[in-house]
Specification:
The protein is built from 5 helices and 9 strands. The protein has about 240 residues and is α+β, with helices and mostly antiparallel strands. It is elongated and about 135 Å long. The termini are far apart. About 5% of the residues have low confidence.
């Protein structure tokens, strides 16, 4: 009885106070959703507060990472080639008919005169003319600045089995990279990778074209400062072009 009397004596909130508290909570939740959650998770910033607070950049990075992860998952889901049925030849068990072979007289070949030097030289010249002309070896050096979050892509036009030596450096910074190639008129979903890396200062080696088309590198600067990228290539390529 004593406790029931003390509880009933406490002031209870009125219906109007409950409505005001509920509305205030809804307003606060809406503000947090628009100014914090949407910019930081989905890079959606209708008020500009997310960009001011640095949350929109976080959301852009999350969306880019999600897109890159989806692309990697799509690349690994390559269907296995269908098994090729092996044709089996029917084997006959019937006995073979007897064949009588009569030896023919051996005819001794007549000695042939040696080929003249002029004819040999003419044959070599004709063979050289029949071989396709190979592009001359080239060298290029490219350098540019990548801002924080910025990406860039450079492609070399190469024939199948063509080979180039390359070396690129972030000049004290670090970059994410993806070395890949595309054949001429490739579909949008096509991807052929040669190698990837995250937050590396540079890379070097040989790039051998797996097919006729365009082969090269994509870089993205995930750091907070500008990075100067320098690329050197030399070898058997037709041209070099920055596509992004």
């Amino acid at each position: 009885m004593m406790y029931n009397s003390e509880f009933s004596s406490q002031p209870q909130p009125s219906a109007a106070q409950l409505v005001r508290s509920t509305l205030a909570a809804l307003v606060v939740a809406t503000v947090l959703l628009i100014c914090v959650v949407l910019p930081s998770e989905y890079a959606v910033d209708p008020t500009g507060a997310g960009r001011f607070l640095g949350l929109t950049e976080m959301g852009e990075i999350k969306q880019q990472l999600a897109a890159e992860a989806a692309a990697d998952a799509a690349d690994t889901a390559v269907p296995a080639p269908a098994a090729v049925p092996v044709a089996t030849a029917a084997v006959s068990t019937a006995p073979l008919p007897a064949v009588t072979v009569t030896a023919k007289p051996v005819v001794q070949p007549e000695p042939q005169p040696a080929a003249k030097p002029v004819e040999i030289a003419a044959a070599k010249t004709a063979q050289a003319a029949a071989e396709p002309a190979k592009p001359a070896a080239r060298s290029r050096t490219v350098s540019f600045v990548l801002k924080p979050g910025q990406g860039a892509e450079i492609k070399l036009e190469m024939k199948q089995n063509a080979l180039v030596n390359y070396s690129w450096s972030a000049n004290g910074g670090k970059l994410n990279y993806d070395t890949h190639g595309d054949p001429y008129d490739a579909p949008k979903s096509f991807y052929h990778g040669y190698g990837k890396g995250r937050f590396v200062p540079g890379d070097s080696g040989e790039l051998k074209a797996a097919f006729d088309g365009k082969h090269g590198w994509f870089w993205r600067n995930r750091t907070k400062q500008n990075v100067t990228l320098s690329l050197e290539v030399s070898g058997d390529f037709i041209n070099l072009k920055r596509v992004i």
